[in-house]
Amino acid sequence: MIRGLYGRLALVLLSAFLLLGVVVYWVYETAGKQLQQETSQQLYFHLADFLVEDISFYSDGRLNTEKTKQAFNRVMMIDPGTELYIISPQGEVLAYDAPDEKIIQRRISLEPIKQFLTDKTALPIVGDDPRSIRRKVFSVAPVLDENQQLKSYLYVIIRGEAYDTAATIINVNKSWLLGISVVAAALAFLLLTTLLLFYKFTRPLAQLKRDVAKFEHSGFSQFPFQEATSDANPQHGDEIQQLRGSFYRMGNKITEQIAYLQQHDQLRREFLAHVSHDLRTPLAGMRAYLETLQLKGDELSEGERNDFLAKALLTNKQLGSMIGELFELARLEHGQVDIELDTVVLSDLLSDLYGSLSGLAQDKGVDLSVSMTEQSICVRADVAKLERVLQNLISNAIVYTPQGGRVKISVLKQTAERVCVSVEDTGQGISAEELPHVFEPYFRSTRGRKAYHEGKGLGLAIAERLLSLHQVKLRVDSEVGIGTRFYFELMRLSNEENVSG
Length: 501
What we know:
The protein is an alpha+beta fold. It is 53% helix and 16% strand. The chain is built from eleven helices and 14 strands. A hairpin with a 4-residue loop joins strand 11 (406-413) and strand 12 (418-425).
């Protein structure tokens, strides 16, 4: 099966030219034969008249058959292409010079004879041939008696049987071959010229087809033909060039849209991972309080039980707030989240965080402590987002610190304007090879002494992105087997700013 537009066009064109060749040859052959008939009939138009004047066909009012045959024989010897017949006024063949078995029509139509005698301008006129079923050109003249009464017709077939035989041999050997050669050469020239034109016209379509196939093979994600768009002006070129330009522009648009969708799909996946990770920590804290109440409720005083319930409710409240913040974080990836700066008292923030995470540290057997050079240090930040950052850093430190280890939260005065907040642990540490990737989503250290946590490693990525909203950089120092320290610097508010805030 032929594929491709050019191949199909070539096949259709070849079929059309073959059909055209047959038609042209038929017209050529028909027109040639008609011209030959007209020429022959015009040339021999008065032959029958001359023979009637020179030959006496009747004696005593009766047709002299022997004398007629002899006269016919002499004429046919002089011109072998002719055949002579005496035809009665009723169309019956009366005399001829030929074997009887060759006469296949004993009566012929008189209409062509009458037309020949009355209308001499409608040549060629063909009539019946007694020796053939084909009609042929002829010459005819009436044979009259002494009283000028019609006795019969002298009917001369101009291109008789001998002529047909010779013409057939000539046509087979030369004429037919010559005609076919001329027609074939002309059609071949036209065919090749047209095929070249078709190739020129269809080549851009073939190239466009290859480009579309490559684009489809890439999954519509890569469009390596950007260089073609510069000269694909929709206002210039023919329709194919305009179509090609439209395709290139469409392809670029499709790749941009697919990249956009893939990016947002990745963000969606990261968002879901963020949610699953960030919900785990407050749920663990709340579960610790509730399990303590369940297991040791009878041993606790009413005040202690109320304290545990209050802490569980507080953690639940923080959990709801965190869910809202995670949705806000998803919008942050699109640049749709703004921070709300407020005055934050670090001692109060750390006290709340210590209260919510101390249960997790106790369950893990980790010593959690807070150290501040000054209790009245205030900074300008988004309270909820800063709390999230510290919560992620502290909870990660607790989780990755083995039993008996320490997690220390420190607030150190760097200068009069800046303070450094750090979370330091004695956990497994992070190798130098993994340290550059520590803030990437899904990161989880695997080269330390032991992977204590089976989480997805999104906490540090979330913390780093939340701090970036404050134009603050989160840094890390770590050594395998010794521990890790995360720290960042915040602008400290002066006492005047704190009062006015």
